[in-house]
Amino acid sequence: MTWIDPDLTLTGRLVRLEPLSAGHLDGLVEAVRDGDLGERLWWTSTPSPERMAEDIASKLAARDAATMVPFACIRRRDGQPLGVTTYYDLTPDVPRLEIGYTWTRASAQGTGANADSKLLLIGHAMEQLGCQRVGLRTKWTNQQSRAAIERLGFRLDGVLRAYARHANGVLDDAVCYSLLAHEWPAAKLRLQDRVARHLG
């Protein structure tokens, strides 16, 4: 028995998070070429177009090992793939989990897609899975991600120094954040407001 259904689909007002599959390959290659994310954002876990198939296979292997639940993020109004996100570090005995390995095509950034995605993921974790803690982590050099996480209402837990090495060989720190169950109602209202601003 897995704690989280690997076939879980979450549907919001702007996006749908559906189980990642090999069938998403072409759409995600096109999405990552939007803004050259895999080349330009070297400090993120965004795969290059050439490594997309390998990245999907790796996430599906983690899903089969019950250590990750990966999603493709799909824009509802036109079915366009926007990127990938996951549940990982699954710890049902607390319960807690992390949300990560997230990337969004450049043209969809700032459109409410990420806010809707986080609303779905955190909401399901807190309200259906009974999580006491949801974690997010990013690299020290990823200033954009750190600011976005803090806007969500997550609090800084600490910095793990010299924690990970980027694909280009650069060593970086990991910045760890968390949101606790009693903090979710206020964070939920903020996310709902951000999503509502992009409905039209």
From TrEMBL:
Gene3D superfamilies recorded: 3.40.630.30
Span of domain N-acetyltransferase: 15-182
Tagged with keyword Lipid metabolism: no
Transmembrane portions of the chain: none
Top-rank lineage group of the source organism: Bacteria
Keyword Cytoplasm in annotation: no
Known EC number: 2.3.1.-
UniProt keywords, alphabetically: Acyltransferase, Transferase
Pfam families found in the cross-reference section: Acetyltransf_3 (PF13302)
MF (Gene Ontology): acyltransferase activity, transferring groups other than amino-acyl groups
Entry protein name: Ribosomal N-acetyltransferase YdaF
Originating organism: Acidipropionibacterium virtanenii
Gene: ydaF_1
